[in-house]
Predict the structure of Helix-turn-helix transcriptional regulator.
Amino acid sequence: MAQKKIHCDCLDTIKPVRDTLDVINGKWKVPIIISVGVGNERFTDIQESIPGITPKVLAKELKDLEQHKLLKRIIIDEYPIKISYQLEPYADTLTPIIYALKDWGINHKKKVME
């Protein structure tokens, strides 16, 4: 019976972690969130702030983040039309996770370089 409890406890952790990774997984989503969070609102500004990202990939990732309610696409009805991106308040819930990942990455690099 104890083995079954351990298995359930494991799944209770694995499933939500997997759900989280499904949303923020990949090479580009967290960097995009960081870029928009520090004030890059225009497509070209976001692209220029993230080395190596292509316009096609950026457009796809922005749509994904918008669908997950982490990012808002704002259309400014002028001529020419301007589009900007802002983080939704819900994206703030990722801030402690992003800083934890940053700290872990710094410490991991030190550990590997020992």
Notes: The longest strand covers residues 71-76. The domain at 26-113 is CATH 1.10.10.10 (Arc Repressor Mutant, subunit A).
